[in-house]
Amino acid sequence: MADTLPYGSWPSPITPESVAQSSPRIDGALFVGDEVWWAESVPAEAGRVAVKRRRTDGAVEAVLPAPANARSAVHEYGGGAWTASDDGELFYVEKTDQRVYALRPGGEARALTPADDTVRHGGLRFEHGTLLAVRETHGSNRVPARAIVRISLDGAVDVLAEGSDFVAQPALSPDGRSLAWVAWNHPDMPWDATTLRVTEIGTGEVREIADTPRRAPLQPVWLGDDELLYADDPDGRWNLFRRPLDGEPQPVSPVDADTGGGLWVLGTRWFGATDDGRIVAVRTDGADEIVEIAPSGVRPVDVPVVAGAAIDDVRGHRVLVSGSDAGGRSGLWAVDLDAGTVDLVTGGSGAWGDEWMPTARALETEGPHGPVHAFAYAPTNPDVAAPENERPPYVVLVHGGPTSHVGPAPSAKTAFFTSRGIGVLDVNYGGSTGYGRDYRDRLKGQWGVVDVDDVAAAASALAEAGLADPERLAIAGGSAGGWTVLAAVTNTDVFSAGISRYGVGDARALAEDTHDFEARYLDGLIGPLPEAEAVYVERSPLSHPERFRVPLLILQGSEDRVVPPSQAEAIRDALAAHEVPHAYVLYEGEGHGFRRAETVIDSLRRELGFLGAVFGFETPGVPPLELS
Fold first, then answer.
1. pLDDT tens digit sequence for 296-305
2. How buried is 294 (Cβ within 10 angstroms: 0-12 exposed, 13-18 middle, 19+ buried)?
3. By CB count within 10 A, which of 341, 478, 485, 543 is most buried?
4. Nearest 5°: CA angle at 277, between 275 and 281?
5. pTM of the full structure
6. Which domains, and CATH codes, for the chain?
7. How many helices (H) and strands (E) does the chain have?
8. Residue 23 pLDDT grade (very low, low, confident, very high; cuts 50, 70, 90)
């Protein structure tokens, strides 16, 4: 018989230590001959990204051993930090110097690019015997010079494409003569407006294949020497198109879902083509689905991925798919389309049984600006029940971006809270991807308004339905999500506590201090400066320090270049000046997003201790957090 204990105080086997060591984050995968190679983060090694391989006999071994770290810093968010040749040579960007290296398993790494502190590389692709990369060169101008380069194995570097503020997703035609890529310019972001370009290498002539205002084509894939497959959103949803270079684009099985998303990192891929012309693609409408598109029709691919899905590689009739399943287990699966088999390569299992993992409940509620989408995770513990008349506390999670997306897959952190009797509500507020351009554009000019109204509406709806205690609603988020946390606690009375991880408190300071990728992002989210300066001032939580009135936990990395520590320290000082209970923690060596196991462990302890202290429940194994 289950014990009866107050919400929040339930004992749980899901410890901070086990969360830190839970399913690794997959960072790309490839078929290399008959082997599968992939990269994954290693929290126990300060978040190092290692490259591993599964041999034909099933044995798993390191290709890129410690201390090497495959991490790109292009656009600060990186991506595409490794690739490999068909015969098993690894090419990777070393985090410490941003140079490209070549490595045979078991051998010594050799540098392919010269040492230069101003140069970064990312978006690596090895296609038809050619190594391609996105190169970012920092100089006296605020906007770094970016180009797609060809890196030869003897160390020569040739520029193949340039001439725009940003370049991404290079693709080489099978005959090696033509290069396709995605380009865009300030002030647009890559989900606002991009162009798809093609050049015949060596001629200097550039053709615009898809260049229509307010559209964002993505990920060119060559179907032959003269035909491209790519994603575009002329009707508000990213769908697939085929286009002969001398013809017109033709839609490929359009649907009211997105095959595409925010191009935050350079290695993301949403689809691929088999040798016989079939297409395997992610389709997102809240949740992710993997489908095969063939002349005979469209069918779902039986791989258990519902969130964070990527089509990492397609070779012949084999496909590599990464993502998370409905139980929150991240993994990598190898799919044989002809045989109909799905093989788990790595991950896909958890340290706890399914009985400890909450199930996502999709919610849609009406907010001031239209429908709001969210996923609710109720408290879940097989050994404990709550008192009959008690309603649970909830943490409302606000994702970053703000142009990002959460799917119906509980993270280990979500289970950490739900197993202790604390519900979690994950909100895809207006501005999120995964619901089409109209939903995404709802945030245009309205950051700090629409996001705040939407998370407040979702939380209020949950409480009004009797599923959450309206007096014990906390809000938590990082980066742009931290901005929404701070704006929500200063502009609504819905939340009784807030947790901000490297959150934005002063929009003007962010516009002045942030890196180039997001240097003009706020033009669209708030307005261009200096014309909209009054709006920046009014929207910024730090402009109204007297409105801080509920307890806050502020967590920050010391090496964050996206939202520097000065923002967190200004928030801390404002809370202290107005005698608002708070705690501030600075994690040395962490950047924008916490990767080290010790940081994950400590921050989880502090978040739980904070909620216990604020909402008045015991937290077994974790002392209440002392607030200043």
1. 999 999 999 9
2. middle
3. 485
4. 100
5. 0.94
6. 26-258 (2.120.10.30), 269-350 (2.40.10), 352-511+537-615 (3.40.50.1820)
7. 10, 38
8. low
